[in-house]
Amino acid sequence: MNQTLDVLVVGGGLVGASLTLALLQQGFHTGLIEAKKAQPIEPVDFSRPGFDHRVFAISRASERIFRALGVWEAMCAQRVSPYQAMQVWESFGEIGFDHQDIGQENLGHIIELQVMQYALQQRQQDFPQLHGYFETKVSHLQQHEDYLAVHLNTGEVLTTRLLVGADGGDSQIRKLAGISCDIQPYGHHALVASIETALPHQATARQRFLPSGPLAFLPLTQPHTSSIVWSLPPEQAAAMQALDKPAFHQALEQAFNSRLGSVLESSELFAFPLRRRHAKPYVKPRIALVGDAVRSIHPLAGQGVNMGLLDAASLLDVIVQAQTKHRDIGALETLQHYQRWRKGENLKILLAMDGFKNLFGNSWLPLRWARNIGMRLTDATYPLKNKLMQQAMGLEGDLPRLAR
């Protein structure tokens, strides 16, 4: 049986890789299990056209976490897209946000998944002491008083003081730990693609609420190129995918009020189902969940990965404090501090997203008028509007050390 690890992270995505780096920086004896094959991620090839269809809106709090991990400069050296403004509207009601209103250089960044993965993987190479297990899955767990035995599908058994499930919405660790999860389909599929428009996006993120679901245009580094996220009922999403390009472009222009003029070109259109998930509880003795293993939300506010990174940074704070005080980092009492910290924050955002989806998904005419008037009133109330923006950017609240 191997020497006992301090922490074993399962899942090498953005949240799992970020947590692993943070643990290594703090001197924890750390292991990482990843189901996929170990292979180098290539940097962005600027000689080839097109963008990764998987992009994320990265908040200021997440930027600070990446800076603390030493990966932000590597991301910026490839391709990140800062945005200075945001427009949100339905019909006659609209809210506009501008970076100058809150004294910030920008409101956030749109970054491709490939860019972030490459930077994180390169940084991991600075820590040869990392124990990596690739093309590997956890088959079952055995609880002991002072450690957890983690049995792998390879027949190997690892021992760890703390096991962290960062393995996504269908988390195997969550299932093996016997942690229940409330799962509710949103009744939407998200369509994603990159598109080229006649008018420049002017570094502005835009979102329109439609009766069928929200449509977002996220600005990329090229002035006429945006990434779209269009939430639609499954049958409508399938119908959009079945259209030829001219017909799809016309439908997209119409849905977006032609705010960026004609749609000139589009990449391949991808679709994935949207589900609301929330684990109950987040922790058990020697086991903690982070990221999508804890909760999945509707992408209308682009907060999913930002919430996951805050999970990771908060868990790090809790176990560093426990280690400093010579307490057991895997004890349930320790891990419940993390649960109390993040559960309240997660519930606020989950409920807010549910509220937005239900509010704007109702086509009753008096309610449509009321919410559009409400948007106009909010737009005219600068203190409220700026407060909303600061919270979304991660500039307020009970933030972990890496995000401050």
Describe the fold and architecture.
The model has no long low-confidence stretch (mean pLDDT 93). Helix content is 36%, strand content 30%. The protein contains eleven helices and 20 strands. The protein has a domain at 5-82 and 107-183 and 276-359: 3-Layer(bba) Sandwich (FAD/NAD(P)-binding domain), CATH 3.50.50.60. The two termini are 40 Å apart. The chain has helices at residues 14-25, 60-69, 72-78, 113-124, 172-176, 234-242, 245-255, 304-324, 332-360, 365-380, 382-393, and strands spanning 5-10, 30-34, 55-58, 80-83, 85-89, 94-98, 108-112, 131-134, 138-143, 148-152, 157-165, 180-197, 204-210, 213-219, 225-232, 263-266, 270-280, 283-284, 287-289, 295-296. It is globular and about 60 Å long. The strands form three sheets. Strands 5, 6, 12, 13, 14, 15, 16, 17 and 20 form a nine-stranded mixed sheet that branches. 43% of the residues are buried. By secondary structure, it is of the alpha+beta class. Strand 9 (138-143) and strand 10 form a beta hairpin. Helix 8 runs antiparallel to helix 9.
